[in-house]
Specification:
Strand order of the largest sheet: 1-4-7-10-13-16-19-22-25
Structural class: mainly beta
Strand content: 35-45%
Helix content: under 10%
Number of helices: 3
Shape: globular
Number of domains: 1
Distance between the termini: 62 Å
CATH topology: Pectate Lyase C-like
CATH class: Mainly Beta
């Protein structure tokens, strides 16, 4: 019996079988090696590490639910998915993948983050990331996020020294920042970014930055430069709720407010760009989310 129990444990860690994490009575740290597939409902209580060289694939319709524990009493849950290997979360419009709180009454910060670090590939499609402190918090990683929803987090994205493309997604109702990055090569296009503290926040040290064909609406600041961001950037062809560039500039925070930081150069789009947000309307309809013409 002991041999078969040990064999079952080895199969779990090496990814030879479907891996569904149970809720433990105490938080745990699990390490994924090899290739692992998650499906159904997966509960993360503590930390799951996708080791270097490993691949975690997540089936359409899966719900990854993070158990809230706050051992360090910082106000945020501790549960984390750390990815040093690959994460492939490819849902469909009819069967999206959820990363969410396990609480009955969820709120922002119930769980900590998806944390890619030195990951060669993070690919999210038709996913919903909600109730986290920092939805995706990436360092030294490559990410493609498309046709997804990041909502009701503290920050939707935090990224440093990474290569990132965010396209055709909805980033809404994140309390602090929708998309927050520094020292990264970033392309952000064809997204609807609305009702966040700051829609897009550039903390410091620009990499190659391309922000175009987005609709940025009802954010405290559409685009904000951080206190240590000294460079000037261009963000042309976005929609700020108006075709008047002078009015659009009023939604920004840059050197006009703080002489020690850089400037944001824009030319507001003459009309809302076509095709912002997830490309399949049934995806948002299934989530009960409406998008009027921005």
């Amino acid at each position: 019996m002991k041999f078969f129990a040990l064999l079952q444990c080895m199969l779990l860690l090496t990814g030879c079988a479907l891996s569904v994490a149970p809720v433990a009575s105490t938080p745990s740290r699990q390490i994924i090696v090899g290739e692992v597939l998650w499906s159904g409902t997966v509960r993360v209580d503590g930390e799951v590490l996708v080791a270097k060289g490993a691949t975690l694939s997540i089936s359409p319709g899966t719900r990854v639910r993070f158990v809230r524990r706050d051992a360090d009493q910082d106000g945020f849950g501790d549960a984390t998915l750390v990815v040093e290997g690959r994460l492939l979360a490819l849902g469909t419009a009819q069967q999206p993948i959820f990363f969410q709180s396990d609480e009955d009454s969820p709120q922002e910060g119930d769980w900590l983050q998806i944390r890619p670090q030195f990951s060669p590939e993070i690919h999210l499609r038709h996913t919903v990331v909600e109730h986290a402190a920092y939805g995706i918090h990436a360092h030294f990683s490559r990410l493609l996020v498309e046709d997804s929803v990041f909502r009701r987090n503290m920050d939707g994205f935090r990224m440093g020294r990474s290569q990132v493309e965010i396209r055709y997604s909805l980033v809404e109702d994140n309390l602090s920042k929708g998309i927050n990055f520094r020292d990264s090569d970033v392309e952000i296009h064809h997204n609807l970014i609305r009702r966040n503290g700051s829609g897009i926040f550039l903390f410091e040290k620009p990499g190659k930055v391309s922000i175009h064909n987005n609709a940025l609406l009802e954010n405290r600041h559409s685009i904000r430069l951080g206190d240590f961001f000294r460079a000037d950037i261009e963000a042309r062809g976005n929609w700020y709720g108006t075709s008047d560039s002078e009015l659009a500039v009023e939604t920004l925070y840059d050197g006009r407010m703080d002489a020690l930081i850089g400037s944001i150069r824009i030319a507001a789009a003459l009309r809302p760009p076509e095709g912002v947000g997830p490309r399949n309307p049934s995806f948002l309809e299934g989530l009960g989310i409406g998008i009027a013409n921005p």
